[in-house]
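stuck on this one:
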Amino acid sequence: MLRISKLTDYAVIVLAQMAKCGEGAHTACGLAEATGVAAPTVSKILKMLSRAGVVKSTRGAKGGYSLVRLPEQTSVASVIYALEGPIALTECEGERGGCEQSSSCHARGSWEVINRAVRKALESVSLADMAKVPAMAGPAEVNIPVSTLFQSRQA
């Protein structure tokens, strides 16, 4: 089963809350209260996202954290990448360099297509989308034409 970590799940919840509230600085304590995620966890997430350039921090009495880009321009993929690294279902894709069988693997090309489809799907969902999806409803269906996956391969 494909899963993201609990920390990444919480990060999306926190960032969706920031997207709902609009521009401006948000405190870790305020976000923790609004989302129900523990304050130390929210602080840890915000520090990681700040290092990755997803949010920026401002010091001072009116300081806090704010999104670097608009919610519509911030993909769920960028959040996952910031917290978990490259998005790939298998080791043959990503920055780790592959597995021991990569030179003789006949399925590698197929896995690259699948990995690219997963990344494209996650890139197509923004924080704005996550902020407007009701808690019990799923996001709208995402259609990714297979031909676009092969085009990306050549780029």
